[in-house]
Each structure stands twice: as C-alpha cells, then as structure tokens.
Write a structure and sequence with these properties.
This protein has 6 helices and 12 strands. By secondary structure, the chain is α+β, with helices and mostly antiparallel strands. It binds hexanedioic acid and magnesium ion (MG). The site of magnesium ion has 9 residues, from strand 1, strand 4 and strand 5.
C-alpha cells in the first residue's frame, strides 16, 4: 500500500461526506497520484465501516463497468466492484430525491439473488448459476462523486463505484428458465426507449460478472454471502436523469421495474 492508515481514513471521510452532502470533487488521484489498488479498496472498505458504525446493513454487492458500452463511455478497460447498503434501496415505483444526488444516471441491469454463498478463486458461470436463487430486473442509479464523471479506475473504486441508489423488481425467474445471453432489455425514459441491449453485452453472460466478483473477493479472503442481491453491471451505457423524469426497465420474460425522479 502507498497510503498510510490516517490518509485512507481521511479520504474515506472526505468521499463519504461528498456523497452525504451531494457535493462533487476532483478525483482523489489528483492529490494522491501514488494511490494503489489496495489503497483504493481500503478507502471503499473504510466508507463501508463508517456506514456500518451508524447502523447500516449490507444488502448486496455490485459489479460495474462490465459492458463494452459502459467501458467505452467512461474510457476505461476493467470492471470494478462495490457494496450495496440498505440506504441505497429504493422500492419499486418510488421517488428518488435528486436534491440528495449530484448528477444521477441510470443503468439497466440484471440483478442476481444468491441462494448459496459463493467463494472464489476458480468460480465460473456454472457455479454462479448453481448458487443463484433467482434473477430479476434492476435499475442502478449511479452518482459519481467526481466532477463531471471525470475519474480513473482507482478513484472510482475508492468512491464505492459511484453507487447511490438501486431498485429491483419485476418478475423474478429461476436462472435455468432463461438464457441470460439473449434476454432483451429496453430502458425507457419518460415513455421513450433510450437504450436497448441484450444480456450478452455484460461480459458475454451476466453471470460472468458475478464469477469475476466472487474471484475478486476470494483473492481478498472474502465471499459473496447467501441472500445477497448483486447488480451485474449496466447492459448499456448510463443515461442521465433529472427531477421530473420517470424511468422504466423492461427485461424480456422478467417484467419491468421503474423509478420516478423528483
Ligand atoms: O455501476 C457501474 O457500472 C458504474 C461504475 C462506476 C463508473 C461510473 O460512475 O460510471
Ligand atoms: Mg451499475
């Protein structure tokens, strides 16, 4: 690690305050160019510890930047991983208060809910499907704390991969009842389709993102707990939203899920 413990704690407090106060910042590698991957995940872990100490509960995990469309949009080449806590949950059809966010965007995702724990290394798509209880449509609301979404991957990891809100819903289905590669998705904003795609846009198969997450955690001595909800990453590029917008995600054979922004 390149940063000392005090700097990691200061950066975690700073970034979490940016989230809680909805204020943006230049990316933290501008002032800490030597920050390494362990530092980045240590800052993310410290943000999680801060939330847990105030009574938050971990409800799941997320993989981000898992489609070429997203990677191209953000000018990066690798997936990243983050946590989901209860303060990010929005119920189906509920309203998201944009005053609590900086510059929200929505991502259409396939969410996995795990029946069994999953531990890497060596985790593959088959192991993911065997451990999955059901899959369902999910919309992630991302809100990078970095000004104009200008960042590098380490800064994004430290910022818990821009996680802000998410909703899951629609019609959950067993993973063996659907071909997650060919399943079609339509994201609508204010009744108009704004992004279209198929599951294979996510690393060839959305379960591959979950396997990557399990292998990433395995290298850190951690696992995906049973019961977790996991967002496998945006199928398309992210779409900016503002107060007054409503967003619906339709996933073939899995119904739809929606959110309103006020
Ligand atoms: O969930 C995601 O794919 C977002 C990862 C972080 C990058 C961004 O803010 O777009
Ligand atoms: Mg996402």
């Amino acid at each position: 690690m390149a940063l000392n413990q005090q700097t990691i704690e200061q950066l975690a407090e700073y970034l979490e305050n940016c989230q809680l106060q909805a204020k943006d910042t230049p990316k933290i590698t501008d002032t800490h160019p030597d920050m390494d991957w362990d530092d980045a995940y240590a800052i993310q872990d410290t943000i999680l510890q801060r939330k847990l100490s105030r009574g938050a509960r971990v409800v799941g995990l997320k993989a981000g930047l898992t489609s070429h469309a997203k990677m191209r949009q953000m000018g990066v080449t690798d997936p990243v991983f983050g946590f989901l806590v209860d303060e990010y949950i929005v119920n189906e059809g509920d309203t998201v208060n944009t005053a609590e966010l900086i510059h929200p965007k929505v991502e259409p995702e396939i969410a996995f809910v795990m029946k069994h724990a999953l531990k890497g290394p060596g985790c593959h798509i088959g192991a993911v499907l065997a451990a999955t209880d059901f899959v369902m449509p999910g919309i992630e609301v991302i809100d990078s704390r970095y000004r104009d979404f200008k960042f590098d991957l380490k800064s994004v990891v430290a910022d818990n991969t821009s996680a802000a809100r998410f909703v899951v819903g629609g019609q959950p289905v067993r993973p063996d009842s659907v071909d997650l590669r060919t399943v079609g998705i339509v994201l609508e904003k204010n009744g108009e389709p704004v992004a279209l795609g198929a599951g294979a846009a996510v690393l060839g198969h959305p379960a591959a993102a979950i396997a990557m997450l399990a292998n990433h955690l395995g290298r850190r001595g951690q696992e995906i707990p049973a019961g977790s909800v996991i967002l496998s990453g945006g199928v398309t590029e992210a779409v900016a939203v503002a107060a007054g917008d409503n967003v619906t995600l339709r996933v073939q054979g899995m119904g739809s899920v929606g959110l309103i922004f006020a």
